[in-house]
């Protein structure tokens, strides 16, 4: 496993690990109570992180192995 | 016939037409039938994996949960998007191995990895056991949607039967190609309907999304955060982790992975899919609006909140489109589940019992199995009561028992052997079955079934014991496994 894939742990640790601090109603962000915003925020972050991993993952270089 | 029923019927016929037409130009062999000749690119794989997000369970259950349990409902998109993160690392490995060994089903994968037919049989039985309740939930959801959206003109039972006939027909003819084509129609419909409802309803009733949440906060603030006990943070974290782990072990998801045309397709999908789970936020908005607008739905009736609110808000023709979208969210996942169960059983049982069976024979048998499973699911749908909820937790807990065997099979040198893997799985499964039966007694003292659906501690405990047994038995049987290897080597030499 190459080092860049370690980034895949970030959504697990960030989203679930910090949950105790995010379990609240206020402040409202984008019209959503904070906890719901937290869920939405990490969905977007998961995508961003996966994009970064994909870009730097050596497995995606060259042609698709058969 | 009312206008909403007419619209639903048109979409049903359209789905059947697309599903059958999908076969065109394909010479149907087992590989085409089961995994589309491993030819699906990013677009189809996206739709088929995304098909698992919008099943009737999330459509009705997601809004229903937000309605009756509040923030606990967030576990659904949470485990799904984390499963996608995990998939980036996990599924290309599965795909690569399966491609190299021409594997088209989950039981075959395990049989091949552990060089054991019994392992394949165990996985096939476990997979089918886990799938039938899922298919039942789709058929039951379909019945609810069509009967509500037709203003009672069609009974839930009649709707379930019609749905089962349609899905069985096109799966038998086109295999997974049929699912792929109907998935296009389904995802387009569900996108339009969910976004429209999720925005229109909060603005129509409350003047915006934040005002709606503020109204809920004033009346029932506990609906917006996780509880201190019961459906608490620790419940949330353990459920999310367990389900994220089990997501790609569900036979139908596993099979969709195999139908991909390459590893990169799967990785690319992992990037886009978490964004797609954002759409579930709109489903929650509808559920929260329903808390204020149609209070008083008790227990399982919470699942009706989305449809009831829509019926209160819109003209029948709009309800027709919502009903059609709901219908499709049942048909597409049910079709992939039928395929997965049937191909798994054909490959791991029929092929072992009748090794001389030709491709044509296998295709005939897998079609017969599809009909058989459909009929069983339909019978359970019509006769089964609320026990469905218990079946649901059971099937997820059951399938996750495959996780240790799967993860250990990934590295080049597997630290466990087939004896350990099989006893571990059996131990886990027995604990789940026992605990579920015990829970049935507990459930009678608990108000409302949904709490039971989500009590996943059973699965976690079973999984831990499973891991323990797997490693102990593997260590104890190490010499047997080694002797066997030597025997194999000797056989090869001689």
Automatic annotation (TrEMBL), chain A:
| Keyword Transmembrane attributed | yes
Concerning InterPro entries, the annotation shows: DUF3311
- Is the keyword Membrane assigned to this protein? yes
Record keywords: Membrane, Transmembrane, Transmembrane helix
Transmembrane ranges, per UniProt, are 34-54
| Entry-linked PANTHER family | BSL5891 PROTEIN (PTHR40034:SF1)
Q: What is this protein called?
A: DUF3311 domain-containing protein
Species of origin:
Peribacillus simplex
Automatic annotation (TrEMBL), chain B:
Any GO molecular function: transmembrane transporter activity
- Which InterPro entries does the record cross-reference, listed alphabetically? Na/Glc_symporter_sf, Na/solute_symporter, Sodium:Solute_Symporter
The record's listing under Gene3D superfamilies reads:
Sodium/glucose cotransporter
Subcellular location field: Membrane
Short name of any one Pfam family annotated for the protein: SSF
Looking up PROSITE patterns in the UniProt record yields:
NA_SOLUT_SYMP_3
- Record's keyword terms, sorted: Membrane, Transmembrane, Transmembrane helix, Transport
Classify the main location.
membrane
Q: What is this protein called?
A: Sodium:solute symporter family protein
Organism of provenance = Peribacillus simplex
């Amino acid at each position: 496993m190459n080092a860049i894939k370690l980034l895949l742990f970030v959504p697990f640790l960030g989203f679930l690990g910090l949950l105790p601090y995010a379990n609240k109603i206020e402040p409202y962000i984008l019209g959503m109570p904070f906890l719901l915003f937290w869920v939405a925020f990490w969905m977007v972050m998961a995508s961003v992180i996966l994009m970064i991993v994909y870009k730097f993952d050596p497995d995606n270089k060259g042609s698709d192995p058969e | 016939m009312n206008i909403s029923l007419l619209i639903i019927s048109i979409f049903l016929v359209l789905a059947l037409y697309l599903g059958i037409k999908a076969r065109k130009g394909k010479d149907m062999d087992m590989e085409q039938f089961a995994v589309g000749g491993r030819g699906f690119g990013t677009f189809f794989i996206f739709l088929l994996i995304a098909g698992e997000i919008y099943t009737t369970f999330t459509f009705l259950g997601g809004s229903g949960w937000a309605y009756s349990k509040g923030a606990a409902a967030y576990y659904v998109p949470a485990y799904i998007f984390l499963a996608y993160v995990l998939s980036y690392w996990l599924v290309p490995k599965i795909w690569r191995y399966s491609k190299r060994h021409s594997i088209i089903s989950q039981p075959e994968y395990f049989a091949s990895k552990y060089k054991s037919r019994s392992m394949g049989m165990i996985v096939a039985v476990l997979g089918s056991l886990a799938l039938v309740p899922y298919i039942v939930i789709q058929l039951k959801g379909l019945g609810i949607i069509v009967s509500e959206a037709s203003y009672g003109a069609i009974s839930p039972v009649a709707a379930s039967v019609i749905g089962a006939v349609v899905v069985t027909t096109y799966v038998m003819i086109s295999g997974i190609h049929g699912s792929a084509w109907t998935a296009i129609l389904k995802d387009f419909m569900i996108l339009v309907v969910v976004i429209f409802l999720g925005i229109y309803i909060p603005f129509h009733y409350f003047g915006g999304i934040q005002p709606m949440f503020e109204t809920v906060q004033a009346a029932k603030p506990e609906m917006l955060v996780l509880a201190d006990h019961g459906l608490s943070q620790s419940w949330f974290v353990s459920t999310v982790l367990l389900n994220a782990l089990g997501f790609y072990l569900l036979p139908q998801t596993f099979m969709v992975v195999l139908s991909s045309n390459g590893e990169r397709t799967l990785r690319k999908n992992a990037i886009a899919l978490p964004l797609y789970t954002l759409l579930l936020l709109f489903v929650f908005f509808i559920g929260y609006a329903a808390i204020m607008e149609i209070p008083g739905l008790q227990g399982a009736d919470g699942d009706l909140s989305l449809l009831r609110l829509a019926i209160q808000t819109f003209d029948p023709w709009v309800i027709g489109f919502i009903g059609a979208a709901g219908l499709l969210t049942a048909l597409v996942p049910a079709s992939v589940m039928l395929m997965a169960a049937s191909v798994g059983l054909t490959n791991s049982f029929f092929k072992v019992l009748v090794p001389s069976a030709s491709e044509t024979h296998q295709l005939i048998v897998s079609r017969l199995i599809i009909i058989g499973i459909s009929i069983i699911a339909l019978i359970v749908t019509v006769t089964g009561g609320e026990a469905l909820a218990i079946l649901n937790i059971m099937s997820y807990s059951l399938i996750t028992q495959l996780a240790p065997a799967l993860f250990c099979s990934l590295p080049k040198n597997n630290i466990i052997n087939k004896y350990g893997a099989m006893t571990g799985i059996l131990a886990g499964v027995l604990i789940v079955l026992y605990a579920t039966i015990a829970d049935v007694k507990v459930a009678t003292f608990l108000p409302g079934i949904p709490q039971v659906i989500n009590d996943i501690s059973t699965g976690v405990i079973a999984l831990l014991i499973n891991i323990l047994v797997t490693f102990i038995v593997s260590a104890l049987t190490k010499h047997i496994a080694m002797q066997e290897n030597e025997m194999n080597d000797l056989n090869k030499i001689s």
